[in-house]
Write a structure and sequence with these properties.
Elements: H1 6-13, H2 15-35, H3 41-46, H4 51-75, H5 78-85, H6 89-95, H7 99-119, H8 127-144, H9 146-157, H10 164-187, H11 196-212, H12 214-221, H13 228-245, H14 252-257
Helix pairs in contact: 1-2, 2-7, 4-5, 4-7, 4-9, 8-9, 8-11, 8-13, 9-11
């Protein structure tokens, strides 16, 4: 399973919400790719990519994700990315003109996928169901794509040299918008009075911990999110802790399924 699969999967899993807000989710890629200079050589030459070109581009980004997450930007090489993608260096450079362009496009896609669940937080929905769904999506992303979480974390810890403008604009606006949704729930008496932004930070920190610190988790428990039972325990525990912390009960439909 490749990282390119994630956004399509997310749309399928939350189709009821994405049908209403699909344009926002899809539009995220356009904003982020433009902001990071993610336009590829192939697309700029032709004005669009064929199915084969799109497939090759995705192969490059998947290979780049593994290389950058293990070696960092300075330690990664175009040669190793090309080899992992199963193509020559010259063929790779047809799609991306430099290592920096590959790195920027990889980060852009990570942001695209990472922000999609938050975008679907529905102000008209039940707060417990909306937050529980968001938490579970974040944990599932940490389970399926830990390399993406670690690469994003490394970029931020280095001062976000490539993505700082997006953090200060697109991400800031999205967090303010969704903090407003949570604040409306609080004012309606549906949640305990807490700072909405800190709630979002807590969800990010808790869910991505299982990807960013997976070595520590395995050392302490002998398990990680690749274990279905441990994944279910993690989803249930984290969801329960956060919902209880804001004065919410477990969503009724989850109780019935359990």
């Amino acid at each position: 399973m490749t990282f390119q699969w994630t956004l399509k999967s997310f749309k399928n899993q939350r189709s009821d919400i994405v049908k209403e807000k699909g344009s926002q989710v899809v539009g995220c890629k356009i904003i982020l790719m433009t902001g990071l200079g993610g336009r590829t050589q192939a697309s700029s030459k032709s004005g669009g990519m064929s199915r084969i070109q799109e497939k090759n581009r995705n192969l490059i980004l998947d290979a780049a994700l593994g290389e950058f997450s293990k070696k960092g930007f300075s330690g990664a090489t175009v040669e190793r990315i090309a080899a992992e993608a199963g193509m020559s260096k010259s063929n790779l450079l047809y799609y991306f003109t430099s290592k920096e362009a590959i790195y920027n496009a990889t980060l852009a896609h990570i942001l695209e996928v990472w922000l999609a669940p938050l975008k679907t937080l529905d102000p008209q929905g039940d707060p417990a169901k909306e937050l529980a769904g968001y938490i579970r999506q974040k944990i599932e992303m940490s389970a399926k794509f830990p390399e993406a979480s670690r690469l994003f974390a490394n970029e931020v810890m280095q001062g976000a040299p490539q993505i700082l403008p997006i953090l200060q604009t697109d991400l800031k606006r999205l967090v303010e918008e969704k903090a407003g949704v949570i604040d409306d729930w609080i004012n309606a008496g549906k949640l305990r009075r807490i700072d909405p932004v800190h709630l979002i930070f807590t969800i990010w920190a808790t869910t991505q911990h299982y990807a960013d610190f997976s070595v520590q988790i395995r050392a302490l428990t002998g398990r990680d999110l690749s274990d279905p039972e441990f994944l279910k325990q993690t989803e249930d525990s984290v969801t329960s802790l956060i919902l209880n912390g804001v004065g919410l009960n477990w969503p009724l439909e989850d109780e019935e399924q359990g």
